[in-house]
Amino acid sequence: MKKIKVAVIFGGTNTEHEVSIVSARSVINNLNPEKFDITPIYISKHNQWGMLPPKEAALLPETIEHSIEPHDVVDQQINVIFPVLHGPFGEDGTIQGLFEMLHVPYVGCNVIASAMCMDKVVQKQLCIQQGLPVVPFVWCDRFGWETDPKKTIQYITNKLTFPVFVKPANQGSSVGVIKVNKPEEITSAITDAFTFDTKVIIEQGVNNPREIECAVLGNHQPQASTLGEIIPSNEFYDYDAKYIDGQSEAIIPADLPAKVSKRIKDYAIKAFQVMNCAGLARVDFLVEKQTHTIYLNELNTMPGFTAISMYPKLWQASGMEYPQLLERLIELAIERHQEASKRQLSITPKLSWQKE
């Protein structure tokens, strides 16, 4: 059989650039070379695109063979794109829009789903509308904060009780997330969060939480994986605990009552469908230890694919090995593209009115 030509795009112009490089290395090493012809495409932090040698193991920027323009991807006769890009300009619908314009199949959610899931405020608002449980939260934009910070702080303290978590609304990997234990710390936390985004969300802290994750896979009939629990090495699962110190622990399967596990999986699939996701998403939850009260924390439409990342590990525990998972994601991308290709994109007017 003819090999499927896959472009693995990674790097990107955002704070998760380094995570993307490690994720892409793992994806490339696990794609079956007998089935896939791999073309690595690196995006530098300065938005320079370049092709790498197909067997380049290190995936370092200096190994770029030659620079290319984004639209040159089509000239490579690519069958499907695997965008191993996290965060802004990779997971937020922007690059997905480019792929749509190029009419090339790509792994993961479409433009609208990617954009909605990237924005934590929009994501939570939609989940609330559909009856999904989320923690109480408020949000503010940079203009409102800079115009009247005292009014914003008063609003926060009226709506929430400490501790709270301050987060840039459009970031991933816990970049810019700060736990605030008392009111006098809130100003500096919000100011810091605004260095990463123009919109900030402030969430109510959950009492004695467990961090539970569920991997969802599919298009029209998504499936939920075995659940996993993260035991963070720090006070919460921040960037360092995820990637740097290597001390966080993943427990798979998570030790939860069967009824609680089923409810979490049901919530994960419902959230996936509410947000119009396709292909994949990792859905993260917070569960109170004593009461087992469940809160949907967030959906990640392109979760980490590093060797320690939960998404592939959860599916491995569910009976699907890493190479098989990647193959299934590519199949889902092609299926969705074929379905979308049936749309009629032009009409022939009865009169040539536009020429008059």
Characteristic terms for this protein:
Dna Ligase, domain 1, five-stranded mixed sheet, 356 residues, alpha+beta, 11 helices, D-amino Acid Aminotransferase, Chain A, domain 1, 23% strand, Rossmann fold, 3 domains, 33% helix, globular
Describe this entry's structure for a reader:
With 356 residues, the protein is of the alpha+beta class. Helices cover 33% and strands 23% of the residues. The chain is built from eleven helices and 15 strands. The protein has helices at 17-30, 94-102, 111-118, 120-129, 142-147, 149-159, 186-193, 239-244, 258-274, 310-317, 322-340, and strands at 4-11, 36-43, 49-51, 66-68, 80-84, 137-141, 164-168, 178-180, 199-204, 209-218, 223-224, 228-231, 249-251, 279-288, 294-300. The protein is globular, with a radius of gyration of 21 Å.
Q: Find the CATH topology of the largest domain.
A: D-amino Acid Aminotransferase, Chain A, domain 1
CATH class label of the largest domain: Alpha Beta
Question: Unreliable runs, pLDDT <50, ≥5 residues?
Answer: none
The number of helices is 11
What characteristic shape results from the CA principal axes?
A: globular
Q: Write the element-wise H/E pattern from the N-terminal end onward.
A: EHEEEEHHHEHHEEHEEEEHEHEEHH
Amount of beta strand: 15-25%
**What's the total number of strands?**
15
Q: For the record, give the distance between the C-alpha atoms at the N and C termini, rounded to a whole number.
A: 52 Å
Give the fraction of residues assigned to helices: 25-40%
Give the mean pLDDT. Answer: 89
CATH architecture of the largest domain: 2-Layer Sandwich
What number of domains? 3
Superfamily at the CATH H level of the largest domain?
ATP-grasp fold, B domain
What does the main sheet amount to? 6 strands, antiparallel
For the CA atoms, what is the radius of gyration? 21 Å
Helix/strand structural class:
alpha+beta
